[in-house]
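User: For my dataset I need records formatted as: sequence, then structure tokens, nothing else. Please produce one.
Assistant:
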Amino acid sequence: MENVNRHEEWYFQSDYDLETAADMLKSGRTVYCIFMCHLSLEKALKGLLIKKRQEFPSKSHSLIYFVDKLELELSDPQFEFLFMLNKISVPTRYPEDLRKLFLAYTKERTESILHQTKEIQLWIKKQ
């Protein structure tokens, strides 16, 4: 696949992961919803890297790494959200105590994370 269209594949996968996040929330699997939100934004940022720089992304999972690499100018709330999502991505991948995560990430809190993820994903794709 040529680099010109490769970013579209990353965006397609980002959309797919975002739909999966919504499905996870509907089924009550809040931890997986958050994990998929992170994955969706990671793929959107990797797609943007290909689109803007024709550069194949590293295997990093850090949202902040890609924001810095792309020199994106985020608002304070956008940066704070990405920083928070980046920070909680490891515990949602490899939880030490899954039950504690259930208590920390209620349906309401997870809905808010999903909503913010959708907004930022759209913003990334418009860059």
